[in-house]
Amino acid sequence: MIQPRRHLPSTQSLQAFEAVVRLGSFTQAAEELALTQSAVSRQVAALEDQLGVTLLDRGPRQVTPTPEGEAYAKAACDALDTLQTAAREITRRDTRGQLTLAILPTFGTRWLIPRIPRFLRRHPEITLHFRTQIGAFDMAQARVDAALHAGQSDWPGTEATLLFEDRVQPCAAPALGAETLADIARLPRLAIASRPEEWQAWATAHGIAPLPAPEMVFEHLAAMAQGCAAGLGVALLPSFLFRPELARGELVALAPDWANDGGYWLMTPAQARPNPAAAAFRDWLMTEVTREEGYA
């Protein structure tokens, strides 16, 4: 039996109340909701009138929830989350021709994007949405259908498809040439923040004594490669992403490539309803991987 809904508030008033409690300010809540402060205040006041309960203590500098308001704020947040999740699920049912893909900055721009015209020629019915993301994240919450990922495949709640082994080699500007592995180890070393132990693993694999910490750390491969070409030091680079610089002589490879214990992966949600666009993208991507391996 459906209960009377005289105490059921509007979603607008719930959003206003939840934002005020979370931010502790009518002004900040208004900015977040793109409303005026007076509009937010009226919505919260109308909610209190409807419930017959004071939900907020309005101080001169801060707004805090009353005990009743704190309990109701949690319920309001849960209800809004439930509605948002349901809306996302319904939206997904009608977006089978759309694919939201998280890409790595350097791999995405240097390897994937130049190949995307071939995908669109094969699948003109699919609309692509790209976002840059590094590391594991909640794909459902982010509304991402697939993600390109570098490193290990231990990403909870996902299925991993291996694209490439992660093979790197020491590269430097021509002026920093080195004849032996020991010479390489004496050069200033550049490293990626997400791989702080990679140089040490390389040294161990080649029988070199433990190395001190790298002299310079970068967030992105592309920036590290630019620093490398500028003569800042030697870097472990995936040469397949920097073939132009190697071909032009801006970078030189100082030693053969080496396979670390990582890889480049396509990650998809493990339990989600199959997305036809994601499946089409995976199939196409594997043909591109085969093409790349043939090039190598």
Structure report:
The chain is α/β, with parallel strands linked by helices and 296 residues long. It has three domains: 11-93, Winged helix-like DNA-binding domain superfamily/Winged helix DNA-binding domain (Arc Repressor Mutant, subunit A), CATH 1.10.10; 98-163 and 263-295, Periplasmic binding protein-like II (D-Maltodextrin-Binding Protein, domain 2), CATH 3.40.190; 165-259, D-Maltodextrin-Binding Protein, domain 2 (3-Layer(aba) Sandwich). The chain contains twelve helices and eleven strands. The strands form two sheets. Strands 3, 4, 5, 6, 7, 8, 9, 10 and 11 form a nine-stranded mixed β-sheet that branches. Strands 1-2 form a two-stranded antiparallel sheet. A hairpin with a 4-residue loop joins β1 (56-58) and β2. α1 packs across α2 (26-33).
